[in-house]
Amino acid sequence: MQLDMDFEEHNAEVKKVWEAFNKGNPIRVPIVFNFSHRFIILNRELNPDNITFEQYMNNPELMIKLQLALKKWLRFNVLQDMEMGSPKTRWDGLYVDLQNIYDAAWFGCSIKYIEGDVPDTIPMLQEDKNRLYELELPDPIYGNLMGRAYELYEQMSKIAYNMEYEGLPVGPVAIPGQGTDGPFTAAASLRGATEICLDLYEDPNYVHELLDFITSGIILRMKAWMDFAGREYPMDNWGFADDSAQLLSTDMYREFILPYHKRLYDNFAKPGSRISIHLCGDAQHLFPTLRDELNVYSFDTGFPTDLARARMELGPDVLLRGNIHPELLRVGPPEEIEKTVKALLQSGVMEGGRFILCEGNNVAPFTPPEHLKVMFDAGRKYGKY
Asked: Is the pTM of this model over 0.85?
């Protein structure tokens, strides 16, 4: 059941909201929601054919089918500060969906498809960490998972060419391989999260050797795909993620991870440019260091983050995104959602006009669109400047 509303009126308001926000003179807080394709794949009502992640990630036709289905559903059912209703010209945004396994799977970890959950990888250095010294970096375009990604990109591009959906053409498929979920997150996937944390104390030299190998590979792969895409680097606006960094203290972050984050910065961000980072766990203790040492001025946060404290510690110039708990949005009740949004927006996080309200981080399957509307309405009500 889709929303009964004037999409043209909504889209006109959205345009004004983002124009004002981007000019540094916001009229209210923008409100958006983050969705991945687990939302549709794990929901039989939205996925009546019961397409699995394994089928979706290996079949270009199914990948296009589910991506377009989710785009249509969002445009007509989820109230947010995005264009809603039918697109004006075409359906954009198709991409090769490698979930969060692409770094580890490219290095050679086996993929594990889990019933009722998102795919994962099996740590390849868990039993024998010295296997690292036998590894060679895979081909950045054709090696391991990226070879499959190249095939999917070619196949999806052929299908999308001249394709129509709901009476409108389908736009081009985005070129994969140009981002990273972070060197320490990859290290935790290759070695195992427990094992890499023990290595920090028992074999710190090994950790540096592993992170050097991983960072060198990430840079090689990203540059190869950016070259393939004709994308210039370093760039003014660059961002990345490294969720597993939350496992480390600030001192350990400085010693073990910061040097490799700086290598990524030096390769992909122009000198002095401000960058963004996604950290959806409890990484708040690292925020000031990331700002001061890595010039991070945009933080995409998860529900554990105290955004009022983050604003106080980081100042008004830093962009913060977040962070209503996904489980609250899933189960409600509506009055608690509104109360929580109100408390967040009145906490001081809006100071400086650099705040985007969203969930923290990723809308859970089976979340009722009505609950998202409650959050949107509350954001409009209490998020005015």
From this structure: yes
